[in-house]
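Sample pair:
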Amino acid sequence: MRVVVKVGTSTLAHPTGCLNIRRVESLCRVLSDLKNSGHEVILVSSGAIGMGIGKLSLKERPSDIPTKQAAAAVGQCELMYTYDKLFSEYNHTVAQILLTGSDFRHEDRYQNFKNTMRRLLELDVLPIINENDTIATDEIKVGDNDTLSAMVAVSVEADRLVLLSDIDGLYTADPHKDPNAKLIEEVRAITPELLALAGGEGSALGTGGMRTKLHAAELCMADGCDMVILNGENPALLYDLFDGKSVGTLFYAKSN
């Protein structure tokens, strides 16, 4: 199975912006084990700006573009250093790819991206993808890594996209506010009612939210790729998912 796993800033970092070492180590160990079992794994990782905020000792997420891009430049180095070190412990080679929305819209660059991804997977490399926040502007950026991961999944003809979030899946209401909220285990169509359940943005350090995840699901489902939302607090849930157990919220591809 070819799987794209997206991990958000809230999973990778503490609220301070500093790396959540225990969780990242667990994530890399589980993904390495999935690769060892024969799966092709592509990681879409947020966290550059968040980690840059921590590295630069900024007290909050910057609001101006130059400081955001400076934080991304600092944080991306830290992020890839960490991934390279941890995956190397399990004998896996990683590659960094930074993209903007215009890379998907420009025919030649899009084809080059697909060719590079295909060759990396043939070479048994684990690609790690992030938006190129250091240069991205409103005109060329994707805007959030939920959407980016869906675009990547479609591009590489993945079988499944897994979004690791700070929530167990899609609920009938906000579980942080409503104790009667129930997890929706399966979704076969994105309806207006489901969209109405989605709130705004996610954590203070991140840019995602349930609405971006539902948009990602729409992209994947329309292209024959299943999508799953899992709680990234426990990366070992990926084992349950690949063992066929019911975890998180599964969005079925339309061809299914």
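Residues 200-208 have pLDDT under 50 and may be disordered.
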